[in-house]
Amino acid sequence: MPAAGSDLGIENTNIKTASGVTLDEHQQTLVGSVLDLFAGRPSLKKLSLWDDNGVFEDNITIATGRKQFEPQWYGLQTAFSEIERLHHEVVSAGNPIGMDLKTRYVTKGVSKEQTIESRINIFYDKDTGKITKVQDKWGGELPDSSFKNVSVEQLFNPWWWVHYAEGWAWWLWSFTWDTWWWQAMRNLNSVSVPKMVSVPKNDEEDAKRGNQ
């Protein structure tokens, strides 16, 4: 099993759970580390909890493997001047671990504020204890099901598109017409972000960034 949370520098140790939900010590470590990542507090030690072939998936990316998912987490520090967790609650202690999360983000430079409510699913290997996938479902859904809820009137309303694009302009992947193109944009995001965001090479470099 990976090291305990205290050895990894995990900051979020006060894990809130729904009534009747109990996490074991290792599950608390996994949840605390993921909360740190969503708060823009990554580190190589925390990411050592992930399987090398792990996957991070949200509505704008599918990052597969360490070379893709690590830059996604370090990219939050680059993109946002403020990240504030407004609410979290673990609602399931199974595999995946299910958690509701509400976070406020402020984009650097333009001070654009966006609040996202998500359902987080944390999958892990029971033998190694390592995270194999984290799903961040905005509004509880991923694109294959969520985009179909957009009405035809919204698609042809330019102000709807302006409002939508403003929130996620920093990734530049907000525009699509159907699931196939959305999937293509998510795959493109996973490849392009690692080219724009550097990941520390070692713990010393990580510490200089304030991540230890």
* Poorly predicted regions: 145-152, 170-182
Largest sheet: 6 strands, mixed
Radius of gyration: 17 Å
Sequence of secondary-structure elements: HHHEEHEEEEHHHHH
Number of helical segments with 4 or more residues: 9
Q: What share of residues is helical?
A: 25-40%
The whole-number mean of residue pLDDT values reads 80
Task: Note the main attributes of this structure.
212 residues; globular; 9 helices; 6-stranded mixed β-sheet; 6 strands; alpha+beta
Would you give an account of this structure?
The protein is an alpha+beta fold and 212 residues long. Helices cover 37% and strands 27% of the residues. It is built from nine helices and six strands; from the N terminus they run αααββαββββααααα. The chain has helices at 5-8, 25-38, 44-47, 66-79, 143-146, 152-155, 158-167, 179-196, 203-208; strands at 50-58, 61-64, 80-92, 97-107, 113-124, 131-138. A six-stranded mixed beta sheet has the order 2-1-6-5-4-3. β4 (97-107) and β5 (113-124) form a beta hairpin. α4 (66-79) crosses α8. The longest helix has 18 residues, at 179-196. The chain starts with a helix and ends with a helix. Residues 145-152 and 170-182 have low confidence and may be disordered.
